[in-house]
Amino acid sequence: MKLSNHVNGHFCTSEIEGRTLLITYLREHLALTGTKEGCSSASCGACTVLVSGKATKSCQVLAIETEAQEIQTIEGLATADGLHPLQNAFWENFAVQNGFSTPGTIMAMMELLNENTAPSDAEIKERLSGNLSRESGYEQVVASVKAAAAKMKGAEVAGGISSNGKYIGSSVKTRDTEKLITGEGKFIADMELPGMLHAAILQSPVAHAIIKGVDTSEAEAMPGVVRVFTAKDTTGIMPMPVIWIPPFTESHFLPHPSGIVPGSHTVFATDRVRFAGDQLAAVVAETRQQAYDALSKIRVDYEALPVVLDAEEASQPGAPQLHETAPNNIMIHTIFGDSEATEKAIAESEVVVEQKIYNQRMMHNTLEVRGALAKYDPATQDYTLWANTQIPYPHRLLISLYVLGIPYNKLRVIVPFMGESNGCKGNLYPDTPLVLWMAKELGRPVKWVDTRAGFARNTAQSRDQIQYVKIAGTAEGKLTALSCVAFSNVGAYPVINAPGQPLPLIGRSIPGAYVIPHASYEVNVVYTNKVPTAPMRGSGRAEAIFLIERAIEMFARKIGKDPAEVRRMNMVQSDQFPYENGLGWTYDSGNYENTLDIALEKAGYATLEAQKAEARARGKLLGLGIGSYVAVAGVGNSGKMGGEGLMSGTWGSAYIHIAPSGEVAITTGAQPHGQSQQTTFAQIAAEELQIPMEYVTIKHSDTANPLYYGQASYGSRSLSVEGVAVQKACQMMVKKAREFAAYLFKMPVDLIEYKEGKVVGTPAPEQAVMTLQQVALMLWFGWDLPEGMDPGLEGSAYFDPKNFNFPFGTHIAVVEIDEETCEIDLVRYIAVDDFGTVVNPEVVNGQTYGNIVLGIGQALAEEVKYSPETGQVLSDDLDSYMVPRSGWFPKVELYRTETPSPSNSLGAKGAGDVSNPPVAPAMVNAICDALSEFDVRHIDMPVTPEKIWEILQQQNSPVEL
Amino acid sequence: MIQNPFSYTAPDSIAEAFSLLSKSGSEVFTGDQAFIGNTKTGHARPSTVVSLRNIPGLNSIIQHGDQLIIGSSVSFSAMLADAAIGSVPVLVEALRAIKDPHLKNHSNVGGALYHRSTSHGPLLAALLSLDASVSLSDPWGDKNITLENYLTAGSGQGEIIKSVTLTINRTAAGSFRHIDYLKVGEIVCGAAVVLATKGETISKISVAACGCVSIPVRLRNLENSLTGVKVSRENIEAALHELPTDELTLSNVNISNPSYLFHLLKVLIKRAVLKS
Ligand code: FES
């Protein structure tokens, strides 16, 4: 049928199906890919456009219903005069990180501004209720809308770039953002290649079964279907590799034919499925709709097997067994610390508190699902893979070497604009090499983009650890010992780095910010019929800090002392650095007590009792919770990581090239996905080279760039490792420029100064002076070089830190619980963090907001729900898996101290995910504080009003009407 | 992506719509977003979708004296912008309970009656408490039935909801109170109350619940026990204590404990009565 309407002021007409959704019409018929698809269930708002001026989620409207209407998309917002004030405001207020949710959010806010020229914070938050942000939260969006409203009324808007007169420490506007606020940036789902086919992948709907047969005949006969692949076609593809093999204990992985690394799952399950999500077949068709239509026609015959979902139950004798290589489903059992000495210290302590904690299973639920696009050129035998991955170089290595067995140098991996990862895009999944392999088999490019429900079943999940915790100390509050026996649920197969999270990241981190003379951590890493797990924002440190911060809170309450004072008396003191925490980490620098003091002061801790009384008079139970933390960040050092079992280096790298024109191009080993390294690394280079930032380009996201290898971005490592490599590369250039100038000026190198982008011979500064551009030009000519000096101004720099770095801080949550309904309201949130040297404060603030949003989500709502009978993931959309919305938040108050790290020359500490760990414990501590009069000691997350009500009922403190 | 293909037609007249709807597999479409959700999940598998968007007269709000006639295609946001509806507090509060602008722009009265999804609950509860009636058409003519009866019986194949009618009672007060699960727009429990008083005594009251029940419902027994009661927190609580647990089957996808839902319902009714 024919649809005609106006889109962005242009008359459009197109032939569509009755079932064609507006989003499909815009993206596929009109190629307006600025409108994004996040959930496809009208939940996330990424697809928001205006239809006749009304905010409309285009995934929930039939295209044909917009006949003769006027549609405005993000592409229609800017005019010949430039960006719309709202677009500019998003940019200037740092409301854009990875930018996937940005177009939809901007369009939703357009409706508001069209109706209300001076919206209040509350009105903006209410209008934002249909739009999710999983990256940076809502704080900067609210500021943007207010700024845009003011601008549109002609007011002078304060703010913009806050500068300290230097590049480092200035909130410089982020690069590439213009493409994100105009919808121009192409994400994986937006990409098209000539002759491209579309793939859909069949996932097992049952968690544990023998595969009796797969019948693809009906699917093969469906319109547009090119091929249907099953396990019988992919016998030549090797299983996924595992590249984290702890050398200090026995591990039980699966075999891998390389004989070099152990293995994991295969691209298609062969004889048995082990989780609901195991891949069984793929349909490749001319259109995505045809591929999914055909997928529903594949019939699989299963023989059901018993399911085990709980890690502790799975490790017991008699539990259903997943892998022959892993008796009792145990992948790894190990102990960190001296458990005997710890148990003895506990036994001898005056006060002991024991608690079982379940750190629930979570889903990364990035608004952008995963996808891959691949092509193979038979003439050159070159493979190209586009994927939204955090780890392009490891993809190149692992796919070529361990999965497809193709030459490393024939595989190029490119990362387009990429939505947030929260850690889940840091793995190698079977779908990705499968897409590459199918492209070669079919001789045409193949694209696969997952669905939201598919994402819930095949993308790694996280957390899911049962902890048996004991904390001990004196009656005065001095801690003497801490032990934890844990069961970590890794799901059905190990992902590439599966042991990293449950082993060192948790195990070495459990003492938190405190001096604890005896600590031990015993862990069983266990296979179950759940989706595999992998690191998630806050990874490992989140579980550890939750454990210690809940434990110290319970301990303080047991001895009747102020929890803040008990923290203070046990904190590592500023004169104790470097401090060995007894479990393997050496904390680098800090003043932990200072952040605690600032947070308490900002929260008005001294008036807490009065605050509680005032709230009580309004029918609210007020509680204040503290979360102090120290979090390991800045992965490498390579040697230490190798000692933990990671089969990879973790050094940082940068290739710098200063052209004869004076332009500086730096390829980084980092992989931006919202962290703005394009900007912050250029700030570092501009500062170091003392040149305008505009001269500097940061290259990334393509393994064809001139870089030996990029170790990528994860674990809050980019700035303090890869950023330092950038700094070193610049220093290398300055050194060569000075040496060259010394030769030309015939002066000792000590007398050559580098300042303001010039080499200057200090004895004759007026005559002996050259700009960096002139140096680059002369070195490019290479006419007259000192002995041993090569032409050109370029080179690679590497940085492998001697130690990790350890950001720290204290967060405080203040909640109110309704006496009647038990609803929880977050009324204040205060974060005091120390990330060492900060290059771009507003970028860091954005990351901090994001960490807080995720932590509050974990505390109050987020949990993957499984059917206990079938093992199916029940929470497979953004309605059943709830993530925080704008209405949850008061104004989040951020403060920072700045203690440089001695681990690197920038003094930087990680910031990307480290401020997530204190959030959930601060929240749960606040809730338990609010309920302290009812003797509520602990509530497992997510803490819901229903759980609180039930606990109060059970404790004979029934909630009255 | 909608897995099930269908044809789409948007007739210009109600007579043409009746003819299209008489064919098996045809389903009426008011433009409400819930229908699209249902087709995606497979809960609706129409072979033909008959859209009412071109049929005149369904997208207006008409006031005749104290009577308010709301066409089935009128969206929640259009209702909120209407001055006459603005004079009915229980309706305004119920409509405001839905925060998501898309839901407000693309949910409508007809959709609420046909689909009765979570986001429709507050409107239906408010309309129930206002004793609203439904105007239906089929090829044999028009008929009016009470909303309460309509929600029990549902609509027949080929019937088209034309409008909902309510009477503005300027002497009655009203309020809608609700619990929005984690402020995500999922109403887990809501209570709509309209009451008239003589002095401080309740002379007439209607109470409807939503969210915690699969279809919004009037609580007739409670209404009876509240009628004649002097308005005070204690009296209302006493009446609510007598509310039998077995009068309603309580459930909500986000709350597993029906006792908690029952507790919430009583709290919300109390708050709605006291607010009114
Ligand atoms: S709301 Fe349409 S894609 Fe999420």
Automatic annotation (TrEMBL), chain A:
It comes from Dyadobacter luteus. Belongs to the xanthine dehydrogenase family. Residues 1-77 form the 2Fe-2S ferredoxin-type domain. PANTHER family: ALDEHYDE OXIDASE 1-RELATED, XANTHINE DEHYDROGENASE. The keyword Ribosomal protein does not apply. This is Aldehyde oxidase. It holds the Pfam family MoCoBD_1. Keywords: Iron, Metal-binding, Molybdenum, Oxidoreductase. GO terms for molecular function: 2 iron, 2 sulfur cluster binding; iron ion binding; oxidoreductase activity. The keyword RNA-binding does not apply. Transmembrane segments: none annotated.
TrEMBL record, chain B:
Keywords: FAD, Flavoprotein, Oxidoreductase. Transmembrane segments: none annotated. This is FAD-binding PCMH-type domain-containing protein. It holds the Pfam family CO_deh_flav_C. PANTHER family: XANTHINE DEHYDROGENASE SUBUNIT C-RELATED. Residues 1-171 form the FAD-binding PCMH-type domain. Gene3D superfamilies: 3.30.465.10, CO dehydrogenase flavoprotein, C-terminal domain, Uridine Diphospho-n-acetylenolpyruvylglucosamine Reductase, domain 2.
